[in-house]
Queue: 3 jobs
Job 1
Amino acid sequence: MKKIVLVTAVWCTSCIIMRPRYLEVIKNSNTVKEFNEYDFDDDEEIVDKLKIGNKLPVAIIYDGEEEVSRIIGEKSINELKGLIGLKNEEI
């Protein structure tokens, strides 16, 4: 089962664009079972723990407890599906 951790910021234009895309992909996925979202400015402890840089948004994809990839910046919905590993799921 996949888990996604998304780090965004209210001042980040790319985050404003990408958040609805992530939510759409996750809502329609049978594979993503957990989704957590954090604010870059408000959740400093988590941001530090996850080693998030200054380029946002950042999505960390976990398969079970293992981090399998990070998605940084703007992507299309089809790119997100591929990067998350949902190529065969209809979105």
Note: The longest helix spans residues 13-27.
Job 2
Amino acid sequence: MQLKEIGKDIYDLDAWLDEGLGAEGTPEREKNREKAWEEYNAQILLDA
């Protein structure tokens, strides 16, 4: 994945995320969002 540079040290992260995780609102993106949320909650429990 290549980041598209918009300006000096400014990059289009939305396009990068869409390429890697799927476009916003797609089942693939939602699956990745759920997985990230589960990982986040697991880390909170481990830290407690």
Note: Residues 41 and 47 are 10 Å apart (CA to CA).
Job 3
Amino acid sequence: MEYFQSAVTRFKTIWRPAAYHGYGHKRGYFEGWYFKVVDRSQQRRHAIIPGIFLGENGVDSHCFVQTLDGATGATCYHRYPLAEFAATPAIFDVRVGPNRFTAHALELNIDNAAQQLIGRLAFDGVTPWPVTWRAPGIMGWYSFMPFMECYHGVLSLDHAVRGQLIVDGAAVDFHGGRGYTEKDWGQAFPRAWIWMQTNHFARQGISLTASVARIPWLGSAFRGFIVGLLCDGKLYRFASYTGATIDHLHVTADKVVWEMSGPIMHAGQQRRARLSLVAHRDEEEVDLLHAPARTAMLQRVLESLTATVDVTLHVDGAAREIELFAGRGRHAGLELGGKVEDIL
């Protein structure tokens, strides 16, 4: 009976990316939610990552809340016993120790020698990646594949933040700030990946999320990618499953250059479009985050919240290319993980 109930719950969550997907898993599994919050002054930037890790053979299983201070680059990993993880079936309501997380709020009660982070933040105008019967979120039809190494979900491309956090004794007001939320779950993070995200452009309502990774597939592997650009209420999608292709991908010590092309809908017609992303890295404010391997949560992710991304979107017109968007995203999250050369 327990197995049947777990199977039914897992089936329901295919169309509910935000909810906990780990029912029935005892080992070799992870799940983590990523909350990015930036205050109105844009001086305080934090990433807060709750999650659960079930080690192979049940070894090293625990839950956690990981934090990144985007202003200083400092990270903290707060570990809790596995018994202190709780999730409501089929909806996103997760507790890790004394901390609680939902799609519309987070409540933190971290107070130890490493860090103090106490308070509640609420999210208004949450904008999830659209979910349909044929495409349950950002992964499209790949969401139905039961053997994927890692699954990905975007719970809100952009939203308003209100509330206050006590950060190491100082009160930080987040009212009027902006936020972004996503998640990952599965067996382990990919062998190699690049991820970037920003929703701080010259005008509100613009958000970019982009990731490319080495994806194991039926005994082989391929370079898969998913990119979404939310612009004035319209989501432009470039992904392996949409027929888009990577035209150029290059990484240097201070820059990631990524150009792609693919079909999009524009003015009621499907047209060929070209998207260019140039992310500028700030190595001085990068720290290592923990990420799930198959045996442990390892410090293996270079991430910052200080990058900038230049974004340009063009679409084919009758006589010439039309520029649909050009802008620079600030306070960008930028990750390079694993053997990046495997996906270049």
Note: The helical segments are 2-13.
